Description:
Blueprint: H1 2-17, H2 36-45, H3 53-57, H4 68-74, E1 75-77, H5 82-92, E2 97-103, H6 105-108, H7 124-136, E3 142-148, H8 154-164, E4 172-176, H9 185-199, E5 206-211, H10 221-230, E6 235-237, H11 238-248, H12 253-256, H13 265-283, E7 306-308, E8 314-315, E9 318-322, E10 326-329, E11 339-342, E12 350-366, E13 373-378, E14 381-387, E15 394-417, E16 427-434
Parallel strand pairs: 2-3, 2-4, 4-5, 5-6
Antiparallel strand pairs: 1-6, 7-16, 8-9, 9-12, 10-11, 11-16, 12-15, 12-16, 13-14, 13-15
Helix pairs in contact: 4-11, 4-13, 7-13, 8-9
Amino acid sequence: MKRTLILLLTALLTACNTAESPAVSVTETSATVTTSAETESTTVETSEETASAETVAESTADKDAADPEMLERSLYRIGNTERIHKAIQKAQSGEEVTVAFIGGSITEGVGAAPGGNTKNADCYAKLAYESFASAYGTGDNVKYVNAGESGTPSTLGMLRVERDVLRHEPDVVFVEFAVNDGGDLLAQQSYESLVKTLLTYKSEPAVILILNRLNNGYSASTHMKNIGEHYDLPVVSVADAITPELDSGKMEWSDFSADYAHPNKYGHKLVSSFITYMFEQAHNTPADPYSLPEDELYGAPYKNAVLIIPTENEKDTLKLTDKGSFKSSAKGSPNFTTSWEYDKEGDASLKATGQGSAVFVIFSRNNSTEFGSFDVYLNGQKAKTINTDQHDGWGEAYAEQIIKFQTSREMEIEIVPTEKSKGKTVKILGIAVCDNPGT
């Protein structure tokens, strides 16, 4: 009898696992295209932060979805629904609709399945996209963009959003950085700059904020909720949904995650159910005309950033003029796969000219004495020295603010390897300027 039951259960599970998913289409971007080499690198470098494949595979993926109380708590605010209504109506009419996600390793899919990052498998973003496509699409007219990047905050997010999201003309964008960001002014202004860049883009996407939490309860949700309220945006709070469950003992953290941060397969499914619930509620909420506030809350001095990378070294108000002792290299970091790499000798500057009120340099951060340091000069004046050998680095892209002015100015930006960097490696992944004087 027991053997018969086991065989029946096995047959049912096999049928579920082989069921066809809805007809959907995936849009690949520089942020979503992951070569086998990049996947291997990211998995190795984040091994200390993520669960083993075996642990993830044994996650509580067979649990039921969220109960009604959790769903209600997850929707911190519904906000203005006009842009969501437009996206849904567009999808229902058969027009092409793009649903995009930008965030850190949770959005990238860490923890969702064995093998580490799974942007196009079981991560919450893919599941939520499939749910939207199934509910409102007409076939393959709904596209998917995943711009998750492990270990990165909204400071890097607002610099890369044009490259990774906006060029796909999104109709809906989810923003997820609550466990990657701090609570300082740079973090607050970076997040608001990212949100305002999205809201003012020509495709007028619906912007939804997602707020996750860590095992210890940390979440940068306070200022993010404030920004959501200021701009009247939908806010999906995973933290608000699951914290009462954890506090009451109805849920153990290990039910949701196999490490300190990343949802397991069940956790990703849970987050996607919160997003599906948000869409359902928004669809049933009357849509008033959306009006973008004229004022800013914390400030958005970095909105509409201009970024150059080795494969796009001239853009708008920023242009590379001399590579100096650096060379264009196919060795970069996950999702910034090329670099201007210091050739271990020489002292000639990597140079760019630009117009703006703020400057950022993106570099590969590593915990290794094989990596050196560089000085940044603005119009001949030394502005900052940056050491790329940092104890918490693992090869990820890191954005460092070099300076912020109250006025816009023309600048010659020089990156010079320090004397101590002879024989070492420095990888410059990008240079960015923002031109929003007085903010």
